[in-house]
Amino acid sequence: MRRLFFLVLTVLAVVYCSGCAGTVDKQNDAAKKQSYVVQDVRGKKMSFESKPQKIISLYVYGDEVLLGLVDHKRIAGLSKWVHDEDLAMGAKEAKDVPQIAESNPEAILALKPDLVLLPDSSKPEQISSLEDVGIKVFVYPAASRLSNIPKTIKAIGGAVGEPEQAEKLIAEMQKKISAVEAKVKKMQPEDRKKGLLFLRFGAIGGKGIIFNDIMTAAGVEDCYEAARHTIADKPGTSRILSKEEVVQANPDYIIIGTWSQGGAYKSGNAQLEELYSDPALATVTAVKKKQAIVIPQGYVNCLSQHAADSVELLHEAVYGK
Questions:
Q1: What residue intervals traverse the membrane (predicted)?
Q2: pTM for this prediction
Q3: What is the pLDDT of residue 151?
Q4: Pairing between strand 292-296 and 220-222?
């Protein structure tokens, strides 16, 4: 009887230990599933045993993408500009990540990051100065047009171990833009409005800049082209239109991107009043009808998933919902 009792105990112990081994194996498998290898825009491959937990981003639009991809507890620091509500559409999202990451190696090392994200527009010496002190740097393709924002999101999503969330962000962005474009397709040509963008230094626009893409998607004609067909027409000259060219462009709407940089420059509303009161612009349709849109400059320059919000806002401001 005693021998049978010990035999039963032995069998139970073996079964229990087998179960423990199975649990450990499952945990190890889960950990392995988190390990991955990515390649940045330089062609440099880097491996991760698990998803990075102390990520630093040093570029405002990379900041916005990162905020949409990961739990904010995984972010060790962001650029200072993402906290500027006139410049960054992700400023509200960033409120629970107050740590500002300075770009020098000493300040970054102090934050003990396991990954630093930099755009390919960064200076090579900045990248190398971080890598030289042992910091893992992933360089991603910085978007310059609406069409290549998904590429930026995919790259950052892969680097932080969140490719599925990256695809979700892209899908949400494209859904918003497609909904606006569907409305635009139903519009009659004569109902389309012309707009002209003004920043603090004057009227600017034309093909090749992000806001031209946003205007096109929103169904607003960028009438910059009416005055300046291509910048190549006047080599060596500024992209800023003269007052005579603004009159020639004759926008239905003036669109002002406002960014005072903490009061260093006049506000968008103050700039608009100057345009309205300028005798040289008295014949411009937007001036005569006082049709203007003043928006934070973040909506103008946005190179993250939030560009879709800019498309929505501009379309609704001009045509209604």
A1: none
A2: 0.86
A3: 98
A4: unpaired
